[in-house]
Amino acid sequence: MPTRSIRSVLPLLRMRPLAAGALALIVAASQAQAAPSKLVVFGDSLSDNGNASALVGQYGLDLPAEPYFEGRFSNGPVAVEVMASQLGLSLDNHAFGGALSGVNNRINALGLLDGTGVQGQITSYLSGTGGTTDASALYVVWGGANDFLSSPTAATVNTAISNLAQNVNLLYQAGARDFFIPNLPDLSTTADAIEAGGAEQAGAHQLSVAFNTALAQTMAGLQSSLQGAHIQVFDTFGALATLRADYIAQGYNVTQGCWDGDMFGQGSLCADPSKYYLWDGLHPTAGVHQAVGQAFAQAVAVPEPAAWALSLVGVGMVGLMAHRRRTTVAQTVAA
After folding, report:
1. Ice-binding protein C-terminal domain location, by residue (predicted)?
2. Which of 115, 159, 227, 289 has minimal CB crowding within 10 Å?
3. What is residue 321's predicted lDDT score, i.e. its pLDDT?
C-alpha cells in the first residue's frame, strides 16, 4: 500500500479549510515523543469494543445485539482498535457505549451502566491501579457526544468541556503525560439529525462547532499549565467531513444507516454496508472507523513538525485512506 509524505499531502490540504474554526493540534513542540508503551482508552460508543455488552451480558441482556459486531456499536472494529493495531500497541480499552463526559451513562439498561461515563471509567481505572498510571502510555480521552444527545443546549458545552478537562487532569495527577484527544464529529451528519432536519439539525452543527472550539482552547490551556504534558487534539470534525465528501463522490449513502433498527436486533439491514457512511442512526460503519483509526495512528506516528502542519494530518490522511478503504472494508465488515 503506497505511502505519502506530509510534504506531499500538504498542497492538497491547503485547498480544504478546517471545519470548526481552524482547530489546531496542540503539541508540546520542543522534543519528539518516545514511542508509547500501550494505548489506554476512555470514551463512549465510538470507542467501545465490547465493554458495555460484556457488563449487561452478565445479567442476560444482549446489547447491542446482532447485527452489531461483537458488542461494538458498529459492524466491525472501532477506530481505536485500528489505531492500536497500526501503531503496534496493546490496547487497554475502558470505553462504554452511552458514556457521558462525566460519571454516568445515558443508556437505560436497568441501571447496569451507571457509573460508566468517561469520568467514571477513569475513576474506576485509577481505583484498580492504586491511583497511579503508566507515564509511558498514550491516553485517549474521547467523549462529549452523548452529553448533547441527552441535552442539546449551549450550557452542555461548558459542562462537557469542564468534565473533559477534569478527566485529563485526573490522569495527569496520577502520572499520565501523553494524551490524544479527538474532537467531536459533526453531529448534524448523523442519520437521526438528518431525519430531524430543520432547526434541530442546524443546532447539532452549531453545538459541535462550539464544543470543538472550546475543546481546543481548553486543551491549549492545560498544555500550558500541566508541566511535561503532551496533548494532541485530533480534528475528527474536519477529517470526517473529508471522508464523507468522498463517500458522496462515490455515490454512496451518507444520509441513512445501513441498519435501520434498534440495539436489540429488531430492524432491517442494507445489502452492502461498505457503501454506507453510517451504520445506524448515530454511528459510523466499520469502513469509516477503519479510515479514522488509520488517521489517528498517522497523527501519533508523525514526528513533531510545526503544530500547524500536524493539525492537518487528520484531514489529509482520512482523505487518502478513503481511496484505500474498500479492500480493507471487505475484511473487517461483518456481513
Report:
1. 301-325
2. 227
3. 52
The C-alpha atoms of residue 170 and residue 163 are separated, in whole angstroms, by 10
Q: Would you mind telling me the total number of residues written for the chain in this entry?
A: 335
Is residue 210 a contact partner of residue 154, using CB atoms and an 8 Å limit? yes
Query: Which pLDDT score, from 0 to 100, does residue 8 have?
Result: 29
Comparing C-alpha atoms, which of 97, 249, 70, 92 is closest to residue 171?
A: 92
> 17: left (phi > 0), else alpha (psi -120 to 50), else beta?
beta
- The per-residue pLDDT for 318 is 55
Secondary structure (3-state) at 289: helix
Question: Would you list the DSSP string of 79-147?
Answer: HHHHHHHHHT--EEE---TTB-SSS-BSS-STTTTTT-SHHHHHHHHHHHTTS---TTSEEEEE--HHH
Report d(CA 335, CA 314) in Å as an integer.
Answer: 28
Which of 180, 179, 177, 197 has its CA nearest to residue 188?
197
Residue 275 DSSP class: G
Which residue in this structure is represented by grid cell 453545538?
A: 207
Q: Which domains does the chain have, with CATH numbers?
A: 6-16+36-251+285-332 (3.40.50.1110)
DSSP characters over 41-88: EEESTTT-SSHHHHHHHTTT---SPTTSSTT-SSSS--HHHHHHHHHT
DSSP bridge pairs for 105 = 99
Residue ranges, the chain, pLDDT below 50 = 1-32, 303-313, 323-335
- 27 CB-side CA count, 13 A: 22
Give the gyration radius of the chain's Cα atoms: 18
